[in-house]
């Protein structure tokens, strides 16, 4: 009986060592794979190493320096404020979202302006930026509301729901008439 137990214990120990070696190999493979992914992540699409940006350079503007900034027209009249920046998938700034009209957040409208339609200059305080457009407040108010992808999806869902509700009402009305 003791011989049997010793053999069983020996077998368990050997399988445990084999399992540990197998797990070690898996860990090493995972580690190698992670190192490879990190190395690949450091390269851009051209295969060159990517350098970290160390400091803001002259001519570069941080988004937080623009968001909530007032936008004025050519007559220096405040016509709205910047609420967001729109970028394309390549990281190029496509435009800005401007809130115009309204009072205390009610009745305001969001309008997108192309990036090249605004002029951004350093403000008098050398801290903030002055954002100017040739459009007036009335012109901006007459522009269509800017709709994000989420807004568009919600609008579609609402239309679909309204259609379903109207179809159900129509069916109910037809059944009631029978």
TrEMBL record:
InterPro entries: PRC-brl_dom (IPR027275), PRC_barrel-like_sf (IPR011033). Keywords: Signal. Residues 60-120 form the PRC-barrel domain. It comes from the Bacteria. Gene3D superfamilies: PRC-barrel domain. SUPFAM superfamilies: PRC-barrel domain. Residues 23-54, 131-178 are annotated as: Disordered. Residues 1-20 form the signal peptide. This is PRC-barrel domain-containing protein. It comes from Vreelandella subglaciescola. The lineage of its organism: Bacteria, Pseudomonadati, Pseudomonadota, Gammaproteobacteria, Oceanospirillales.
């Amino acid at each position: 009986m003791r011989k049997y137990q010793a053999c069983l214990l020996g077998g368990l120990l050997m399988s445990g060592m084999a399992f540990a070696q197998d797990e070690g190999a898996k860990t090493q493979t995972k580690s190698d794979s992670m190192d490879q992914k990190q190395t690949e992540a450091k390269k851009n699409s051209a295969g060159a190493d990517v350098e970290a940006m160390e400091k803001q350079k002259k001519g570069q503007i941080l988004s937080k320096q623009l968001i909530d900034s007032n936008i004025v027209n050519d007559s220096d009249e405040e016509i709205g404020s910047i609420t967001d920046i729109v970028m394309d998938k390549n990281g190029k700034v496509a435009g800005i979202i401007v809130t115009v009209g309204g009072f205390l957040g009610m009745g305001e409208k969001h309008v997108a302006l192309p990036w090249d339609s605004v002029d951004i200059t350093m403000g008098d305080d050398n801290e903030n930026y002055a954002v100017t457009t040739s459009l007036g407040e009335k012109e901006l108010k007459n522009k269509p509301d800017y709709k994000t992808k989420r807004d568009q999806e919600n609008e579609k869902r609402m239309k679909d729901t309204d259609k379903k509700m109207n179809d159900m009402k129509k069916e109910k009305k037809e059944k009631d008439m029978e």
